[in-house]
Amino acid sequence: MISEQSAIHSGNLIGGARREAASGRTFESRNPARHGEVVGVFAQSSAADVDAAVAAAQRALGGWRATPWPRRGEIILAAATLMEKRKEDLARLMTREMGKVLTEARGDVQEAIDMGKFIAGEGRRAFGETVPSELRNKWAMTMRQPLGVIGCVTPWNFPIAIPSWKIFPAVMAGNTVVFKPAEDTPLCALRFVEILEEAGLPAGVVNVVFGNEEAGEAVVRHAGTMAIFFTGSADTGRLIAATCGSMLKKVSLELGGKNGIVVMDDADLELAVEGALWGAFGTAGQRCTASSRLIVSRKVLADFTDALVGRTRALRLGDGVDEGVDVGPVINETQLRRIHRYTEIGVEEGARLLAGGTVAQNGELAQGFFYNPTVFGDVTPSMRIAQEEIFGPTTAIIPVDSLDEALAAANSTQFGLSLSIYTNDLRHAFRAIHELEAGIVYVNAPTIGAEIQLPFGGTKNTGNGHREAGGHVLDEFSEWKSIYIDYSGRLQRAQIDTDEQ
C-alpha cells in the first residue's frame, strides 16, 4: 500500500476498476498548509469519462435495486465500521489534503460514521405504508422505488461527511451513483468509496470521476443521470437548477449561508464568546454554517467585543496536524485572495477592523494559504460583509438595541441556513425559534454542530427546499409507488356511487 505521505496517482474509479481520463489529462491535489507538497495526481475527466461512469452505473443498477434492503444496510454498516477502525488515518489524510485541524477532521469522519450507522438501520424499517381502501376486498399500500442513476457533486470543506450524507442514503434506496468530488479533495473521496467497496458494495454501484467544473457539468447534463444532488455555491446552484429544470430532472441543492448569532444582554457572555469563536473560525470559517455575523445587544457590546477580539488574537495558526493549532489554512490561493478582498471591502464600507485582516506570511505559514482570523466592528446589516458569503475566517459584529432589531438583522440576508440566539430569557428563546428564518435554529449554541438524526438544509437562497439527513432523508433518494390489490373478483370503481358500499 502506498504511504499517504507520498503522492499517489489515480485514475477514475469506474465499474470497480481504475481508468485514466480519456484525454490523458491529469491534475494535482496539494496540501494547503504546504502548497509545494503534492498529495496526489488524478484523472482530469471530461464528458467521455462521465459517459463511461454512467454506463457502469446503469449496468449495476438492476442487480443492486434487486438486492434486499437489509443486505444493503449490512454493507453500509460494514463500511461505517471500517471507517471507525480507520478514523485516525482518514482524519490525518483529510488534514493533509484539505487543511482543517486534526480534531475537526476526526469530527468530519465521525459524522460519516454516524450517518452510516443511522442509514444502515433504515434497511429494516422505512419501506412503505399500508392504508385502508374505500372499497371492500381491496388492499392499498405504498413502496419505495429507486430513482435510478444519480449524480452527486460535493465540495471540499467536508470531504468525507458530505459525500456520506448523499451516497449512503442513495445506495440504501437502491440507486447507483456517479460521484464527482471537489477538485481540491479527490483522495479523501477515493478512500471513502474504496471503503464502501471493501465493505461489499458491488462494483459499479458507486463510480468516481475526478476533475473540475467540466466533469461536474457533464454529470449534471448527462441524460442517464436521473437526479442531481449538489452542495456548493448559490451561483453554481442556480446554473444546475436551470439545467435540471430544462431536462425535468430532480435536483437537490444545498447552497450558501450567511449565518448569525444573536447575543442578548441577558446571555451568558462567556459562553456566547466561546460559541462565536468556534462558530466563526472553526474550519477557518469554511463552513456553510459558519457564524459570520454576530448580532450583539449594545448593553453588552463592549464586553463581548473586547473578549472576542482578545480570544481571536490568541488563536494559533498552523498545519492542522499539530495538535496545538487552532486554525488551519484556507483551501487554495484563489480563496485566500477572495477573503482578503472582502477585508478591503469591509474597510471601504466603513466597518472597523478589530483583529486580523491580513494574509499570514511569517515563518512556515508562508508555505501555505493562511489568513489571520478577522473581526469587524461597527457593521450595519446592509454592508456587503454582512450580506455576502465570504467563506473564510471573517466575522462581523452588528450592534442592536432590541430583540426586534436583532431578529430583523438576523433575517436580513438572502440566505436561511442556520441562526442562533444566546439568551437566558425563555420568552426571547421561543420568539427566536418561531421568527428566525432558517432551516436550523440553535439556542445557546453557535450556528455549527448539526447532528445527522435531524434534517439539514435551509430556506430562501440556501437551497431549493430539499433536506439531507434526518428520518425523512430517503424521501429525497426514492420515488413513492402506490399499489392497489383488488381480490374481490369483480370490477369495483373507486369514487363511483353504487348501491353496495
From TrEMBL:
Pfam families: Aldedh. One of its GO terms (molecular function) is oxidoreductase activity, acting on the aldehyde or oxo group of donors, NAD or NADP as acceptor. The keyword Oxidoreductase applies. SUPFAM superfamilies: ALDH-like. Residues 22-483 form the Aldehyde dehydrogenase domain. Keywords: Oxidoreductase. InterPro entries: Ald_DH/histidinol_DH, Ald_DH_C, Ald_DH_CS_CYS, Ald_DH_N, Aldehyde_DH_dom. The keyword Oxidoreductase applies. This is Aldehyde dehydrogenase family protein. It comes from Candidatus Aeolococcus gillhamiae.
